[in-house]
Amino acid sequence: MTENILYAQSGGVTSVINATACGVIKTARTSKRFKKVFAAKNGILGVLNEEIIDTTRESSRIIDSLIHTPGGAFGSCRYKLRSIDDDISEYVRLVDVFKAHKIKYFLYNGGGDSQDTANKVGHLSSKLGYSISCIGIPKTIDNDLPITDSSPGFGSVAKYVATSTLEASLDVKSMAESSTKVFLFEVMGRNAGWIAASSGLIKSKSMSAPHVILFPEIQFDENKFIKKVKEAVIKSGYCVVVASEGIKRKDGSFVSDAGSIDAFGHSQMGGVSPFLADLVKRKLKFKCHWAVADYLQRSARHLASSTDVKQAYALGEAAVRFAEDGQNMVMPVIRRIPGKKYRWKIESAKLSRVANVERKLPRSYITQNGFGITKKAKEYLLPLIQGEEYPPYAAGLPSYSYPKNELVTKKLPAFPG
Amino acid sequence: MTENILYAQSGGVTSVINATACGVIKTARTSKRFKKVFAAKNGILGVLNEEIIDTTRESSRIIDSLIHTPGGAFGSCRYKLRSIDDDISEYVRLVDVFKAHKIKYFLYNGGGDSQDTANKVGHLSSKLGYSISCIGIPKTIDNDLPITDSSPGFGSVAKYVATSTLEASLDVKSMAESSTKVFLFEVMGRNAGWIAASSGLIKSKSMSAPHVILFPEIQFDENKFIKKVKEAVIKSGYCVVVASEGIKRKDGSFVSDAGSIDAFGHSQMGGVSPFLADLVKRKLKFKCHWAVADYLQRSARHLASSTDVKQAYALGEAAVRFAEDGQNMVMPVIRRIPGKKYRWKIESAKLSRVANVERKLPRSYITQNGFGITKKAKEYLLPLIQGEEYPPYAAGLPSYSYPKNELVTKKLPAFPG
Fold first, then answer.
1. What ipTM, to 2 d.p.?
2. Which among A142, A210, A402, A404 is least surrounded, fewest beta carbons within 10 Å?
3. Is A142 a catalytic residue?
4. A19 close contact with B: CB closer than 8 A
5. For every residue of chain B, which 3-state class applies, written as one string?
6. Which residue of chain A comes nearest to B402, CA vs CA?
7. What is the set of domains in chain B, with CATH numbers?
């Protein structure tokens, strides 16, 4: 074995992307097919910059600990390769770096945009004659990748959002008679409402919250929203609203792009929840509080779902098996096995069918009034948040340790030269 | 035994206030001194409205489960009694309700304002001749009560804020080269910076975040702030800012009261983090993200500190013992026993010394530049976040169940009549 395998992380990181890294490295380390397991620093940028981390220098203790460590252990990036027909230079560079470090296997761990990159890299074989096995590995908290039943990162965010909504709802409920009546919780999801939907899992006979869920898939209507909030306060004494950051108006504009200006005439950064809070305050005169989860939700490894961690690891492992088989331009995906009990297996999907495709929340998952989730949605979501996979703690805090990330010696001139 | 004891919750609830309720009810149930353990619905408002919950109708399973249930199990309120000299009517009403339900012991669980209420109720003995044993029980996430070394609710918020800052920092760090460079995290603390300070616990040799902590105790200076953020990005590649909601300008005004107006001319609800994010964006042109923890932080029972839960329970237990002894106008407090290892015991403090007094973060806990915490602060804070006290989970979510809260039959006319 003289050939190396390279793993890289791309796009927004998740609380379990390193569990996938763990699956990749542990599996590849024991495989007879690969000499060394490399990781690119900051995704495809690290390949272009010839910043290659030699993971053989990392202890197995550190590699094991990746399974419970959030963030991106090797760094991630937001970078999209141009089409090979528009600009061949980056592709030539990739081949140079791959050749210089004897890399014949490339695993790219990311969402829809990143799988576009993986798909392009996979074409090096046919377009530039450099034989490579390029495997995509799914990852996105947005859960918007097609074909796969779910994507690593999402189950843990769903568990975090459902738990946080439950806890905050109990808080608001206790105080509503003489204090805050409306609580707004802004969650991620620019184009797809999967994350917001997960808050609906807490609704039960004894818990009326969340009373309103706002999805990007449903056009935001100010009057309907206000009416619904008012109804909830009259009926339950309080109202919990969970809003996707990506809700849009009739004209297609994001509600968060409110175009507000501050007292000094400067334009204000958007935000759905301050906008909605202001609306509720003006129209209904209710005391209102709001929270924005932002990166907290996608990094909350302390509350990860076991299902999610297991799948993240298994997909990393499967990607290595696909590489061992010399496959190219494919991605391991989760297939849900029909039946009452949740079971899943890993299958293979072509990258060309995954790249740049966004899967939105089906209309059948949203209640007719547009403010809640259906039984069908609950059945889909519930298995994904099962199990508590706590990280170890030291001195009261989760003990998250990162690899040293030592780079191999560069062999090429800088790029672009 | 023919006399009853009444417990009530007041002010903003915490993730462990029900652990105190659990300590109160379990201890009082086994005491020979009390006939029934009552709880007021929504704090002192429930007493005034004669809305009295009979906790003897609750199973011991439900009472036991209060130890891991966030929110306020019996409801809380924000309500301050007027001085007895200004308005005697509410006090006469309290005596009427206490007499009607044979209540001779009153335990009030809250922060500084609530202890003012407890202190006033305690004066019923001397001013209206109705002998009562009134005991305050500390509770505040703000940790601003005097005399007690810490207050139940704070340790768990500190653990949540430190953990969340750690997790989000790892996330930002992974992406900083090609994405977000500055992350702002807004936490509670209107007048005292204890909560913001707790984020400083994550700083270590391998973790440079949080790079900037903004305390209400330190006057906010726009230029110094921007300079510090820029320095951090140059040095670490990214910058994490933890900001108290209560930071103030030179003129004493809250930064959150930015007085901004939206595109339609409506005034916008404040918020420190959107303001700071806009500032960073304008002055430094860095990509910026922000999160607001709001109620999430004070209800996050899923990440409670063991120390906090134990103290919350123990203070409830101690309050019942004080009542058994017929004490009046006192509050059990935590005393830290000097020594290397963290140990604590419960002592007693007079309510008159507690009511309406706010304890701020000492200057010696803040670094000279005003943006971090000192070793002394870390030594104080660290013991308070120790231990993980997880709630039980069912079907992927914490199982939080509330009492039935059945009211006893009213015996009096409505108030005010």
1. 0.97
2. A404
3. yes
4. no
5. CCCEEEEEECCCCCCCHHHHHHHHHHHHHCCCCCCCEEEECCCHHHHHCCCEEEHHHCCHHHHHHHHHCCCCCCCCCCCCCCCCCCCCHHHHHHHHHHHHCCEEEEEEEECHHHHHHHHHHHCHHHHHCCCCEEEEEECCCCCCCCCCCCCCCHHHHHHHHHHHHHHHHHHHHHHCCCCCCEEEEEECCCCCCHHHHHHHHHCECCECCCCEEECCCCCCCHHHHHHHHHHHHHHHCCEEEEEECCCECCCCCECCCCCCECCCCCECCCCHHHHHHHHHHHHHCCCEEEEECHHHHHHCHHHCEHHHHHHHHHHHHHHHHHHHCCCCCEEEEEEEECCCCCEEEEEEEEHHHHCCCCCCCCHHHECCCCCCECHHHHHHHHHHHCCECCCCEECCEECCCCCCCCECCCCCCCCCC
6. A206
7. 4-153+302-357+387-398 (3.40.50.450), 154-299 (3.40.50.460)
